[in-house]
Specification:
single chain; about 210 residues; alpha/beta; two-stranded parallel sheet; 5 helices; globular
Length: about 210
């Protein structure tokens, strides 16, 4: 069974994306590991909202690349917002990376046997998960994030969210309620609804 490790950076939206990716991989039969040195595939879900976030993402990518030299890792996958912003540069400037997966694909069609180790073409981000999408919640048991909307239709000159996250799309009310009920049954008492995507939290929860 192939072992996969995750590093998730950036905002709560990114964390939910990582949890969905982990859920899909677990459903496909992959084993999630909290140890980078034993993971055969490493996934870094990146942030690119501000310059400091970009640096943190690059540092994490280079740190995980060391495990291809000295650990069990055979593949290094970079996902998320840094890919949407600098996709063209990865193949030439970061040769340690085996594949990139943007926000439009990172959760929508995660196919480990095919796409996970291939360079995927750019496309406008369009995916938004729902209550039946596999997800492994990594926050403390009493708390969880619920993504109810994604993207933005306002091309403000000071904000890069539309480029990184695509056009605005919203989940169905019933789907959000069902997810909240499912999380509550699992023990969550604090459900944080992430509406606009501008309330960024600098976090690095590590691996699954």
């Amino acid at each position: 069974m192939t072992k996969v490790g995750f590093v998730s950076l950036g905002c709560p939206k990114n964390l939910v994306d990582s949890e969905v990716m982990m859920g899909i991989l677990a459903r496909e039969g992959y084993e999630l590991t909290p140890r980078a040195d034993e993971a055969e595939i490493l996934v870094v879900n990146t942030c690119s909202f501000i310059e400091a976030a970009q640096k943190e993402s690059v540092d994490a990518i280079l740190e995980m690349a060391e495990h291809k030299k000295f650990g069990a890792a055979k593949k290094l996958i970079v996902a998320g917002c840094l890919v949407e912003r600098f996709r063209a540069q990865f193949s030439s400037k970061v040769p340690e990376v085996d594949a990139v997966v943007g926000t439009g694909k990172s959760s929508a069609s995660w196919k480990p046997s095919k796409a996970i180790c291939a360079w995927l073409p750019a496309q406008p981000p369009a995916f938004l998960y729902h209550d039946l999408t596999p997800r492994i919640v990594t926050t403390p048991k009493h708390a969880a994030y619920i993504k109810i909307a994604e993207g933005c239709d306002h091309p403000c000159t000071f904000c890069i969210i539309p480029e990184l996250r695509g056009k605005f799309r919203s989940r169905r009310f019933e789907s959000v309620v069902r997810e909240a009920e499912n999380l509550a049954r699992a023990g969550a008492r604090e459900n944080h609804a992430d509406r606009a995507g501008h309330d960024f939290v600098r976090r690095r929860p590590g691996f699954a």
